[in-house]
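Async update (no meeting this week)

Hi team, since we skipped the sync, here's where things stand on the single-chain job. The sequence we agreed to prioritize is pasted below, unchanged from the tracker. I ran it this morning and attached the output directly underneath so nobody has to dig for it. Comments welcome in thread, and please keep replies under the output.
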Amino acid sequence: MKERSTWKKESARDLISLGGIPFFLLVLARVYLLNIPEYFNQFVFSGTIFLILFFIFKLNLYSGMGFIVLIFTSLFYSEMTFFIFGLIAYILVIASLLYLKHDTKKVFLGILAGMVGVATGYLLA
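Output:
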C-alpha cells in the first residue's frame, strides 16, 4: 500500500513540473526558434508580470506559469484538440497541487495572477 502512495506522490510531483520555471524556459526557447517576435514577447511579458506578482504576493508558481503556457500555446496552435489536451494536463497540474497539499488559496491566486499575466502580456505584445 505504501508503494502505491509513493507512486501517486511522484506522479503528482512530475505533473506539477509542467508549471515550473524549467518547463517555461523550455517552451520559451522553442517559441524563440519560431522567429515570431510578437509571440515570444507575449511569453516574456506574461512571465515577467507573473513573476513580479509571485514575489510580491507569495503565490503558487506552478498554477500561474502553467496557465500562461496553456493559453499562449493554445492560441498559437488554434486547434481545439490541442486545447482540450492542454486543459486536461493543466487540470491535472491543479489536482496534483491540491493532492500534495499546496495552499489552496495560493494555488487559485496563482491562477488569477497567471490570468493577469496573460492579459497584460497579450496587450503589451
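Quick observations from my side:
Residues 11 and 96 are 8 Å apart (CA to CA).
The chain is about 85% helix and 0% strand.
Reply here if anything looks off.
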